[in-house]
């Protein structure tokens, strides 16, 4: 199920394409010494020639992991409803940019756009556009086929987007390599299984020496095999990222996630909108979560680099800290709570009533179980939101509290009231 929350069979054999990446890393390590886990992840996942995402990007049944949108259309539909609910709660602004970070195959965006079409009367006076931040040329091609039927064109070099097209439902879509290229404006951001693939630094507490960073190096006894080592002294990352109040003995920090959240928070503070993050994660409690996935099984993170997806649980307490002062935050709450609050049970009943055959009904129930069962994805997946500060508290409540109408609840994080 997805990138499994807990153990599955191990797999350590190297695949055909692994050799080139391993040789490249081995040369690098022999020349310059051990590298941080963050640098190792960056090479293994996004190296232009041999990186996992640039070369493969195995989402879906035939790939290395399945994501929630691939399991059930209901997942994306409920997220689409979340955005419309928040857009309405914020006074129905006249423009609406949907910005997705790392859109995978485009399945989630397609499900959201279907909801937008079904509720087109609600959005009729709103200028809606879709903006996808995608570094993988292969995945952007797959997204283009899914969302536009392949009717896309490269953008002129002076434009920030590298590709553009029109969705099957008539909405303009733009592709970018970096969130900073997305034009400013009232935007809703979506990061589904995006932060868990960003490079992490790993640290271990050694009482006699204090904190040491975990590094990746060549194993001197086994040629071309990688191993973890501890830095002999404090690294710059150790000094910058370990909080004085830290009580765990093993910590993972993702500075890139912090930078991206700060950018999102600044944009929301300036232009309005909201961000929804859905990912594996914890609230500053877990220690070692770095793992690899290949062919839907756990895979040794140091074996056959470039052939497996590498991931680490998102530390939502760190994201909250990075957004502080600019936006309000909600969550993390477990996926099953969020989807229940969004009305998944009612939606399931409607789909079951409308499905004519047993196989479809069985598939719907199986998908629901995958998404909601605490033993599967229901508990290990979390939802987290960034919202403008005034969305959760009236700015001048202290002055005239009696004159303020109550703020509408935030869907998903409170129970959605179905009128």
From TrEMBL:
Main subcellular localisation = mitochondrion
InterPro entries per UniProt: NDUFAF7 (IPR003788), NDUFAF7_sf (IPR038375), SAM-dependent_MTases_sf (IPR029063)
What's the EC number here? 2.1.1.320
State the signal peptide span.
none
Task: Please name the PANTHER family in this protein's record.
Answer: PROTEIN ARGININE METHYLTRANSFERASE NDUFAF7, MITOCHONDRIAL
Pfam families (UniProt xref): Methyltransf_28
Give the superkingdom in one word.
Eukaryota
Q: Does the keyword Magnesium apply?
A: no
Similarity-based family: Belongs to the NDUFAF7 family.
Protein's recorded name: Protein arginine methyltransferase NDUFAF7
Reaction(s) the record says it catalyses: L-arginyl-[protein] + 2 S-adenosyl-L-methionine = N(omega),N(omega)'-dimethyl-L-arginyl-[protein] + 2 S-adenosyl-L-homocysteine + 2 H(+)
Any one annotated GO CC term: mitochondrion
Record's keyword terms, sorted? Methyltransferase, Mitochondrion, Transferase, Transit peptide
Single Gene Ontology MF annotation = protein-arginine omega-N symmetric methyltransferase activity
State its location(s): Mitochondrion
Any idea what job this protein has?
Arginine methyltransferase involved in the assembly or stability of mitochondrial NADH:ubiquinone oxidoreductase complex (complex I). Acts by mediating symmetric dimethylation of 'Arg-118' of NDUFS2 after it assembles into the complex I, stabilizing the early intermediate complex.
- Example GO biological process term? mitochondrial respiratory chain complex I assembly
């Amino acid at each position: 199920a997805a990138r499994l929350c807990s153990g599955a069979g191990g797999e350590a054999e190297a695949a055909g394409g692994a050799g080139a990446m391993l040789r490249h890393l081995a040369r690098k390590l022999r020349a310059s010494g051990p590298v941080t886990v963050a640098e190792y992840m960056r090479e293994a996942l996004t190296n232009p020639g041999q990186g996992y995402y640039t070369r493969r990007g195995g989402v879906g049944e035939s790939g290395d992991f399945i994501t929630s949108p691939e399991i059930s259309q209901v997942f994306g539909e409920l997220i689409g409803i979340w955005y419309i609910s928040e857009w309405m709660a914020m006074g129905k602004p006249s423009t609406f940019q949907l910005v997705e970070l790392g859109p995978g195959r485009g399945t989630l965006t397609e499900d959201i756009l279907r909801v937008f079409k079904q509720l087109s009367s609600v959005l009729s006076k709103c200028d809606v556009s879709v903006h996808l931040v995608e570094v993988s040329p292969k995945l952007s091609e797959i997204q283009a086929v899914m969302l536009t039927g392949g009717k896309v064109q490269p953008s002129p070099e002076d434009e920030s987007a590298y590709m553009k097209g029109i969705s099957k439902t008539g909405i303009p879509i733009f592709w970018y390599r970096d969130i900073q290229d997305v034009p400013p404006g009232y935007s809703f951001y979506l990061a589904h299984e995006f932060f868990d693939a960003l490079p992490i630094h790993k640290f271990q507490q050694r009482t006699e020496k204090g904190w040491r960073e975990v590094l990746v190096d060549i194993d001197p006894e086994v040629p071309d095999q990688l191993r973890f080592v501890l830095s002999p002294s404090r690294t710059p990352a150790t000094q910058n990222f370990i909080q004085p109040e830290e009580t765990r003995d093993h910590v993972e920090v993702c500075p890139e996630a912090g930078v991206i959240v700060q950018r999102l928070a600044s944009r929301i503070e300036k232009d309005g909108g909201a961000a929804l993050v859905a990912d594996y994660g914890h609230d500053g409690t877990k220690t070692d979560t770095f793992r690899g996935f290949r062919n839907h099984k756990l895979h040794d993170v140091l074996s056959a680099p470039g052939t497996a997806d590498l991931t680490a649980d998102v530390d939502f307490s760190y994201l909250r800290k990075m957004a502080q002062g600019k936006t309000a935050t909600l969550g993390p709450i477990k996926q099953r709570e969020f989807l229940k609050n969004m009305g998944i049970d009612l939606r399931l009943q409607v789909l079951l009533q409308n499905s004519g055959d047993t196989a479809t009904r069985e598939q719907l129930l199986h998908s629901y179980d995958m998404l909601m069962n605490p033993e599967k994805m229901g508990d290990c997946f979390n939802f987290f939101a960034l919202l403008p500060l005034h969305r959760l508290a009236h700015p001048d409540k202290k002055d005239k509290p009696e004159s303020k109408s109550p703020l509408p609840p935030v869907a998903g994080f409170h129970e959605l009231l179905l009128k």
